[in-house]
Design brief:
Number of domains: 2
Low-confidence stretches: 1-34, 361-381
Helix content: under 10%
Number of strands: 32
Shape: globular
Mean pLDDT: 86
Structural class: mainly beta
Largest sheet: 4 strands, antiparallel
Strand order of the largest sheet: 1-32-31-30
Radius of gyration: 21 Å
CATH superfamily of the largest domain: YVTN repeat-like/Quinoprotein amine dehydrogenase
CATH topology of the largest domain: Methylamine Dehydrogenase, Chain H
Strand content: 35-45%
CATH class of the largest domain: Mainly Beta
Distance between the termini: 69 Å
Oligomer: single chain
């Protein structure tokens, strides 16, 4: 009986893996006649412009995969990792290299900074902890499966989520496992996981079944759970309600959005739903003091009120261009598309007020030559998978083909 149960569990797990591969391949590399054509861009008046201050080619980027690799900013450096585990710190001001390491593996998620450490995971299910001041290996820990999300935590504990439904609490200094919390994974799911959030000694995780849970970071016990959306529809694809975009916490509310489901406001103290609205998205949520900003599954960008979920505006002139999650800076919204074009919108109205096409040759690449340019060459942009990091009028953006740029808002 034990052998039979084990065989069934192995078969079920392999079935899930096959289904994930199939749905990922069909949805993200689709070339059939049913694929929606990206909307052609209309001419706009560039009220807002951005200028490239420096550009570096950092490794292979995501290397023709959908692995989302996000840089981290701290002090005066920006640290970036590529799919081949090349990790480099650059000077924010001029792009010069500060230090470099390579770990000769295939990166599945990264980077994240927690306290004085950097973290990334690889395809073998290993979590790496590095020194923030040189990238030296501090420890590594084998987990039960691959992690596609960033870790969260504090100086004592870090939390990692794996695609087999496990959430691990690990000692931040040693990587030793302190607890594991297991959650069922739907039979059919898109490739991707949202990242845990650490907030006031709790860990919040949005799952592939459209549930959001709050865990005690000390022992992994569930404090509350809330359901953002319920599966509906005739086909298995229509019934998928994954939450793959990262939730955000603003004040006392956590905001999360699912595929084929809703965006919801949840009280972080007790898990009670404050409101829901029918919106579907693969990506995460940006916010300011009053509003949320999301890219829906059709690449429409929406502004939504935090207090009641009312839609304030919708920008639909970038349909099917596979936009990134939005990012907010002052009065602007930034997104980028699969062709490497950056779009700037008015935060107040959603109007398109700026555009930067990064598919340019070195001959007319708009670089400020007063600044140092490291490794100048003809850059082959293939679009963006992650939003930018914006700090003090500087925009840092890492492209899917390995291009790292610093832009300045003019």
């Amino acid at each position: 009986m034990l052998k039979q149960n084990l065989s069934m569990r192995v078969f079920s797990f392999l079935s899930i893996v096959v289904l994930i591969i199939l749905i990922t391949s069909c949805s993200l590399f689709e070339t059939n006649d049913n694929a929606m054509e990206p909307t052609a861009l209309e001419d706009i008046n560039n009220i807002v412009t951005i200028k490239v201050k420096w550009s570096n080619q950092h490794g292979v980027g995501s290397n023709n995969t959908l692995v989302k690799l996000s840089p981290v900013l701290f002090d005066k450096s920006i640290v970036v990792i590529d799919r081949e585990a090349n990790i480099t710190a650059y000077n924010q001001e001029n792009g010069s290299e500060l230090w470099h390491q390579n770990y000769a593996t295939k990166v599945s998620s990264g980077l994240a900074k927690v306290d004085d450490k950097l973290f990334f995971s690889d395809d073998a299910g290993i979590l790496y902890a590095l020194s923030v001041n040189g990238g030296q290996l501090l420890w590594k820990q084998k987990l039960s499966s691959v992690s596609l999300s960033l870790i969260a935590g504090d100086s004592d504990m870090v939390v990692s989520r794996t695609i087999d439904g496990n959430i691990f609490g690990l000692n931040s200094d040693t990587g030793e496992e302190r607890w594991v919390s297991n959650h069922n994974v739907p039979i059919l799911t898109y490739r991707g996981n949202s990242s845990p959030i650490f907030h006031e000694n709790k860990i919040y995780v949005a799952l592939d079944n459209a549930q959001v849970i709050a865990l005690n970071i000390k022992n992994g016990q569930t404090i509350w759970s809330a359901t953002v959306a319920y599966a509906s529809g005739r086909s298995d694809i229509e019934r998928m309600v994954d939450i793959d975009g990262d939730p955000v916490i603003v004040g006392n509310n956590l905001y999360a959005i699912s595929l084929n489901g809703n965006i919801a406001a949840i009280d972080v103290n007790n898990g009670k739903l404050q409101w829901t609205r029918k919106v579907s998205s693969f990506t995460g949520i940006a916010h300011d003091e009053k509003n949320l900003y999301i890219t829906d599954e059709n690449s429409q960008v929406l502004a939504i009120r935090q207090d009641n979920g009312a839609i304030l505006w919708k920008q639909d002139k970038l349909l099917y261009r596979r936009l990134t999650q939005p990012e907010v800076y002052e009065g602007y919204i930034f997104v980028a598309d699969f062709k490497g074009i950056i779009h700037i919108m008015s935060k107040q109205s959603g109007a398109l007020i700026g555009r930067k096409d990064m598919l340019l040759s070195s001959g007319n690449h708009d670089i400020d030559h007063e600044m140092m340019v490291v490794n100048p060459q003809v850059f082959n942009y293939k679009g963006y998978l992650v939003p930018p990091i914006i700090s003090e009028q500087n925009i840092f953006w890492y492209g899917a083909s390995g291009q790292l740029d610093r832009f300045k808002i003019l």
